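Q: How would the structure tokens look for this protein?
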Amino acid sequence: MNPDRIFEAFPAPSYRGNQEQALRDIRDAFEAGNDVVLVRAPTGSGKSLLARAVAGCARTVDEADPVEATGAYYTTPQVSQLDDVAGDDLLQDLNVIRGKSNYTCILPGELDTPVNQAPCVRERGYDCSVQHRCPYFSDRAIASNRSIAAMTLAYFMQTAGSEVFRKRDVVVIDEAHGLSEWAEMYATIQLGPRTVPFWDDLRVPQVDSVEGAVRYAEALARRCTSRKDELLAQESLSPGEVRERDRLQELIGELDFFVEDYRDPQSPTTWLVDQDDDGDSSRDRDRGANARGSGDEDETENPNGGPLTIKPMDPERYLRYTVWDRGNKFALLSATILNKDAFCRHVGLEPSRVALVDVGHTFPVENRPLYDVTQGKMTYEHREETLPKIARTIVRIMQAHPDEKGLVHAHSYAIQEQLEALLTDFGVGDRVRAHSRDDRDADLESWKASSEPDVFLSVKMEEALDLKGDLCRWQVLCKAPFLNTSDSRVAHRLEQGQWAWYYRAALRTVIQACGRVIRAPDDHGATYVADSSLLDLFDRARTDMPDWFAEQVDRLEEPDLPEFEPRAALASTDESGEYSRTLSGRGSARSGSSSASGTGSSEKAAEDDSSGARGRSRSRSRRGRRSSKRSPLADVWDTES
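A: Here is the predicted structure in token form.
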């Protein structure tokens, strides 16, 4: 790697914000001998451009000996982020490759067939006459032979050990804050009717220890291998049999990795096992990897068990094989790598070989205000009382933004459904949209494309969502995004007292959410905090806040919202001029001043107030607020899925 090439490799014609300083700091960090550089860059920093510059520092073929790694990988867990890269004219030399299922066969009669079910994978010994023109193999060949290959993190991990995508000199991971969680998810083994092709033919035991799960995994792997060999012996397969064969191969790899890792006394990974009694009610059977079990019970003789989930905790070995062995130098970029040492601990890195580069925020804090509209706790036991109050508050916020689109982070589908019903009962349903589990993307795109000031009730859309400009001017966080304590990994960590990790994970999601509605220095968007547990979260996780977000929290204030009047929430700007100039700042925001966005001066706020608008807000600084002394157990989130 040649860090001095970083400025030459920067793809834009000029720098904006703190990009030049960021490149200088990244270069210095690599030149100091660090193997990994964490780049904490907030929204609007141009992380993809920084990533391209780092990738351009990789050793070239001309500079390398035959055995030395060359070139770079760019990878991100977010498909939407990869789509953005593929469509960016400045990043055209990032050669994108996707999984086979994203490509369509070009053979006559197969034009609706994804490549992963095409004749080349259905028929043994099939010689495709057009493979050189196949969209998948063409993209794969280009990506494997060019200096920078771009792919999703899932594809990157799945190609570990591939002869096509071998080790490279530099690996750049964008949106890397969730690397540990993504690895845990990818390494998790689900054994049930949707994941094991012949599940109904199995005699599933009650598994009461990790040792018991290992024995069952060994037996199941043998059964899968036998069935896979039967399929491979056939001359041709149906599309369904192709899916079964591929799933069996994947499952065999998962089971073998689990058994090997568990049997390795040097592995730091702790494995947990959950089992359903009957496929409906969940019973956690958590045993740490050190609790090996007595081995006296013969669990295979008790066929009364249900589906199994085998989960790794901090899968260091998995990450080493799928990520750390794939490159010489690494750059990991995100706005929310909150604690360097904790991040390194969870992903298996030695902190002394890792540097953290902080990129300053270039968005004026006045343009990204936080507003305190808390109505109580949204824990399960308090939700029935709190949620109607939040719904009424959302109506008042809609009144304050009559001609601007809004987003509500509902956190769960149960809350989304209740909110939609409450808002409909209040008479504002015509301005409210929601998405289903199956049509998330389509419903989101329909809302974004609409010119109406509709409010979108979303679930799990705190990340990878670009709502620049008038796509969305305000949002509501109606529930603190604490992790689900019924998840055995979460429960295991909390039993070990890892409360800092718990609060840090929630804070990370909040910071990500706050970045959805402001995407440029001249953009503006307000975030309303409706769950009082969020205020406590800000106190408890204060030491892990980036300075630029702490600045937002310090300016947290209570807005002076209109009185509850649902009809006004549906009124147009012309019909309700009073509300159109309240927190939304319509008419002044476009010129750079708005009491809601925080871009207006006190003189302008006074002027608006004298003209009848409700533009003033009561500032309540959080700077001197003391942390709660209550036990963290009092704030454990509900255990719904």
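Residues 239-263 form the longest helix (25 residues).

The longest strand covers residues 327-334.

Upvote if useful.
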